[in-house]
Amino acid sequence: MNYDAALVELQNADWSFVLVTTDANEATVIFLNHLVQDQALEKIEPWVTPGLIRSIRKRDNLRKKCRTKPNDITLQKTYRQYRKMCNHILKTAKPLWQNIKQICNIGSDKSNGCSDLLKSFPTPDESVNMVNNNFSSVGSSLAEDILAGISAGSTVDNISEISINTPASSFALYLISEHEIISIINSLKSHSAPGWDGTYINRSYPDPDFQIKIHSCENFPRLSNCSCPSLMSSDNIKYLGVYLDRHLRWDTHINNQSCRIRKLIFIFKSLRLWGGAPKTNLISIERAQRGLIKVMLFKKYRHSTKLLYHDSRLLTVRQLYILN
Predict the structure, then answer these.
(1) Contact 59/82 with Cβ under 8 angstroms?
(2) Which among 16, 22, 46 is positioned nearest to 34, based on CA atoms?
(3) Which residue in 69, 82, 129, 276 has a CA-CA distance of 20 to 30 Å to 293?
(4) Within the chain, what is the greatest distance between any pair of CA atoms?
(5) What residue segments make up the domains of the chain, in order of their start?
(6) How many angstroms separate the CA atoms of 52 and 93, rounded?
(7) 201 vs 189: CA distance, rounded Å
(8) 3-state secondary structure of 165
(9) CA dist 306 to 284, 285, 302, 311, 322, Å?
(10) How far apart are CA 240 and CA 261, in angstroms?
(11) pTM for the complete prediction?
């Protein structure tokens, strides 16, 4: 520790905030609080936040580790990525804070412009009203300037022909003419599905009275009022196992599948009871298999079944059944 430099810094420091109080105990507490204050987290600049300070220190620590471990590829890659991110944040935060200071007028060269504004009119109320009128009339003044820039021979219908190749950061509201609305309506598809109003522009299905008859009569030309049978119209059709209707709803298909599942409930109950039968029948065969293997390998009567199959490298009856 450099005691000489510390002594010089203490001598040059301003201790007036400690000498203000006349109580020795209170002065001691103030002095100790000032010494134990964490100077590392103090902001170097207004735009340098504690998070940026931690990022800078982490970047420096990674750099030191990279110097001690130059062959660690993962560490080198991590350091380069973190350094790039940290430098980008620092370069972005500084000009951003400078712009904020300029907009909010919080720089070192502060100038109170409100005093000049209040002197423009006799009373402060008139000055404030003038400022409000200025901001509230920005839109109308801008619209008047745009309309004034259009030639005198232009009409409202021709305003839609103004070029819309404006920059992406601009904002404008164009007047909509009757001609533009008519062109949009005429460009709509006439054979699309109905909208919220339920109105079909072109009918996509026949009338309810439409009939197709299977003529067996000898009348020619065919008469629509003959006694020949007619085909019955159906509300749905089955295609690839799926029931479809003209509204493309799933009600019919779901009801049909529900009925089919209900018919199979008793079969599933029988399968549940039948599942215990193989266990009862196969246990006798498994016991005979284990007894034969123990005799062949000269094992004891109560030898472990797991070790028996492991030593013999044979499959159980169940495993043979699954294998086949």
Answers:
(1) yes
(2) 16
(3) 276
(4) 130
(5) 3-104, 236-268, 285-323
(6) 10
(7) 9
(8) coil
(9) 17, 17, 12, 9, 18
(10) 19
(11) 0.26
